[in-house]
């Protein structure tokens, strides 16, 4: 099992969360909540208002999200779902655990709040230069105060 940090439409209560619940895609188990150790620019960009974590560590804000333990089949599904490696790139980053609910078997040791875990994340390394100047967010909600509602894939 691998740990994946999700910060956008894959989180609980967001439009694409259902793909993590679909067993035909593989297994994904919610482990807890956290935020990135380093700041990153989280922007909402493009004609469909898609949340993008720009791969610029050290800039932006520490980004809140959810940690999932996923099997290899789900990881391959997420690579395809996220358009990896063209749209997003799967990279590794450290996440501070805020709250852990996962079973001890998901990792060697159950991390306590304040500890860090290494997670995969889908970030964007190639993007239009103007995206760096968009507002940075520390968390994402598709219907948030930002006024940029996400346009789901099925509506495109």
List the helices and strands and how they pair.
Elements: E1 2-6, H1 18-21, E2 28-36, E3 42-45, E4 50-53, E5 64-70, H2 72-81, E6 89-100, E7 116-123
Antiparallel strand pairs: 1-5, 2-5, 2-6, 3-4, 6-7
Q: Can you describe this structure?
A:
The mean pLDDT is 93. It is built from 2 helices and 7 strands. The radius of gyration is 15 Å and the shape is globular. The protein has 156 residues and is mainly beta. It has helices at 18-21, 72-81; strands at residues 2-6, 28-36, 42-45, 50-53, 64-70, 89-100, 116-123. The strands form 2 sheets. It has a 5-stranded antiparallel β-sheet. The protein has a two-stranded antiparallel sheet with strand order 3-4.
End-to-end C-alpha gap:
33 Å
Structural class based on helices, strands and sheet pairing: mainly beta
Q: Average pLDDT value? A: 93
* Spatial shape: globular
The major β-sheet equals: 5 strands, antiparallel
Q: What amount of the residues lies in strands?
A: 25-35%
Order of helices and strands: EHEEEEHEE
Helical stretch tally: 2
Q: Gyration radius, to the nearest Å?
A: 15 Å
Using DSSP, what is the number of strands? 7
- Uncertain runs with pLDDT below 50, 5 residues or more? none
Biggest sheet, spatial arrangement of strands? 1-5-2-6-7
Q: Helicity level, as a percent range?
A: under 10%
